[in-house]
Amino acid sequence: MDIHVTVNGRPEVWQAAPGESALELIRRLGYTSVKRGCSQGDCGACTILVDGQAMRACLLVAAQLEGRAVTTAEGLGSLDRPHPLQRAFVDAGAVQCGFCTPGMLLASQALLVETPRPDATAVREALDGNLCRCTGYKKIVEAVLLAAERMA
Amino acid sequence: MIPNAKTCLYPKDPPQAVSLLQEHGKRALILAGGTTAALSHDPEVEVLIDISRMGCDAIEPQGGGWRVGCNVRLQRIASHAGLAGLWGGVLSQAAAAVGSRPIRNAVTLGGNLVQIFRWSDTPVALLAMGARLELLGPRGPRSVGADEFYARHPRQVLEPAELLVAVQAASPVGKAGGAFIKYARTAVDLAVADAAACLRVEGGRCVEARLAIGATRALPWRASEAEALLTGQALTPARLGEAAALARKACKPVGDARTDKAYRERMVEVVARRALERAVANLQERA
Ligand SMILES: Cc1cc2nc3c(=O)[nH]c(=O)nc-3n(C[C@H](O)[C@H](O)[C@H](O)COP(=O)(O)OP(=O)(O)OC[C@H]3O[C@@H](n4cnc5c(N)ncnc54)[C@H](O)[C@@H]3O)c2cc1C
Ligand code: FES
Ligand code: FES
């Protein structure tokens, strides 16, 4: 079926089987910032924004995206023009292997839209569904707070 | 992934959803939040029915209580100011206890109530509030109490092509409180045990007590011996403790990968006591 989506601000029509995993579909179309970790909703590596809300792509099928606006890390910023969150993740040393990073960025972005100046508790709550095997989380929380400060 | 799905339909309202379900019968699969349905893998499913666009996403005051549509996502319930005042916020607390933030952004109240697992959180709050469930099926609308909805598996209560459309909970009259407590290994894990308590008091004595326990058996259940012990009595700490001990005695839990029976039994007493204590602590006269 044809699926009409707005991806990172651009309208697109995707050809997909209605029941296929949104995660597999999005990756096949080249948005490989969306990572496949557990494929069952536990890790957060596949986080995307659907109409601004952080969701697990692995728990959606393609047909559920019909008419929705999807944001992936590709839509946040680029190497030349990084998003303040991306800049802050680098500056705060919040990236090690980087596998969790796109999901962390998107969950953080959803938080900052809703709460521009969160405290550390609010950041930890917003990221409670994103696992990181490397950093120990401390620098990730610092990075989000730094970005919030810079964006204020 | 649903391997053989050929099409997806997007009903505009509940009656249309019901007729599509009737038309496609066993070949149809409902998608609400999708958090369980998306992983179904059922080869017989050919038609997906995405009910998330049929409305039913309001949280609205109704006749002194609240009505919550089946498509409301749990994160909205968890942060809703009005529901925070309903029976001490027992439903909001149960919604907040489900999984992690992105899970709550996706899971609908209807999905959490119908697609029930042993550890499902919001059904426990519904039993404690004495809520009612609004259903719509081929034979029209009907309303069933939470006790009836969870006396069997909800899928056996729902008739073919019947939908859960909304939940209604009346606000208590007079002085009342409530609370939901979940004990899990981490902040985002499934419950080892959970409990919800709703209490109403008149002239220093308890006139209404409901204590519901989850995660112990296939379906959530009410600790009726504990409720009977509290009714008509002053809610002293000692009596709350005795009631929680009765819940433990009645619970007959299963063991699983998370914990064995004995530990789960002990945790039932702990969550039951804490839920009762917190319900007493937030007893409030309705304005
Ligand atoms: C990683 C993870 C952690 C989780 N943790 C918890 C937790 O701690 N506590 C908890 O309680 N839950 C938890 N859940 C959620 C739970 O397991 C279910 O996935 C969820 O409740 C299903 O809701 P949904 O809206 O996504 O329904 P869907 O998956 O879209 O629907 C599932 C099925 O429910 C039925 N259904 C849905 N809505 C209706 C309706 N209105 N009328 C009739 N039938 C309907 C249909 O048969 C449908 O096919 C977790 C889920 C995941 C993936
Ligand atoms: S891959 Fe989706 S949550 Fe892990
Ligand atoms: S940086 Fe490696 S998983 Fe987070």
Report the order of strands and helices of chain B: EHEEEEHHHHHEEHHEEEEEHHHE
What is the percent of helical residues of chain A?
Answer: 25-40%
Instruction: Compute the CA-based radius of gyration of chain B.
Output: 19 Å
User: What is the element string of chain A, with H for helices and E for strands?
Assistant: EEHEEEHHHH
Question: Your description of this structure?
Answer:
The complex is a heterodimer of chains A (152) and B (287). By secondary structure, chain A is α+β, with helices and mostly antiparallel strands. In chain A, 33% of the residues lie in helices and 15% in strands. Chain A has 2 domains: 2-75, Roll (Ubiquitin-like (UB roll)); 84-151, [2Fe-2S]-binding domain (DNA polymerase, domain 1). In chain A, strands 2-1-5-3-4 form a 5-stranded mixed beta sheet, with helices on one face. With 287 residues, chain B is α+β, with helices and mostly antiparallel strands. In chain B, a hairpin with a 2-residue loop joins β4 (59-62) and β5. Chains A and B meet through β4 of A and α4 of B. The complex binds flavin-adenine dinucleotide and FE2/S2 (inorganic) cluster (2 copies). One FE2/S2 (inorganic) cluster (FES) is lined by residues 36-39, 41-46, 56, 58 of chain A.
